[in-house]
Amino acid sequence: MNKNRLEAFSDGVLAIILTIMVLELKVPEEATFEALKAVFPVFISYILSFIYVGIYWNNHHHMLHSVTRVNGKILWANLHLLFWLSLVPFATGWMGENHFAKATMTVYGVILLMAGVAYWLLQSLIIGSQGENSILKKAIGKDFKGLSSPVLYTIGIIFSFFNEWLSGAVYIFVALMWLVPDKRIERLLEKQ
């Protein structure tokens, strides 16, 4: 099966996710800097989630660029990833509106964890279909970031029951860890 429809559909869903998130930013009724203070937590949660969705879009793009064909399992795994990412706007709005309350940080972390697991599953199915000598398998190698992210999300979720700020620090740390562009797939594709 050709991968073009999968890429186009995924890009469209991710664009809608970003659009929904920005629509959650409500314009204050008053034209004062004081009025902006009320929307500041929502804006901060938006920034973090925008970065996360951007990271997934970027890595998804690179991963699919290495794919030669897709099958039904890959299509379903991709939908599974998009499902969890589609919940990011809900968690983002809830977290920001409630000033990063513990329960909101827990739900946000669970969504991040499940999106990470879904991404790993998609990546594994692609490698399984492309073979152990595939560009993707060679590029990810031991995948330190991919393996450590679920552990860190779990730590963030546990922290959220005790201290929401520590939980948020973990989520920010994981985002910063992934913000550094990963050139492994690009380099291997350039060589071929």
From TrEMBL:
Which residues are listed as membrane-spanning?
A: 6-23, 35-55, 75-95, 107-131, 151-180
Keyword Hydrolase found? no
Q: Does the keyword Transmembrane helix apply?
A: yes
One matching Pfam family, short form?
TMEM175
| Record-level Gene Ontology MF annotations | potassium channel activity; proton channel activity
Entry keyword set? Ion channel, Ion transport, Membrane, Potassium, Potassium channel, Potassium transport, Transmembrane, Transmembrane helix, Transport
Its UniProt entry gives the catalysed reaction(s) as: K(+)(in) = K(+)(out)
Any one annotated GO CC term: membrane
Where along the sequence do coiled-coil regions lie?
none
Kindly give the membrane topology term recorded for this protein.
Multi-pass membrane protein
Protein family membership: Belongs to the TMEM175 family.
Q: What is this protein called?
A: DUF1211 domain-containing protein
Record the organism.
Flavobacterium pallidum
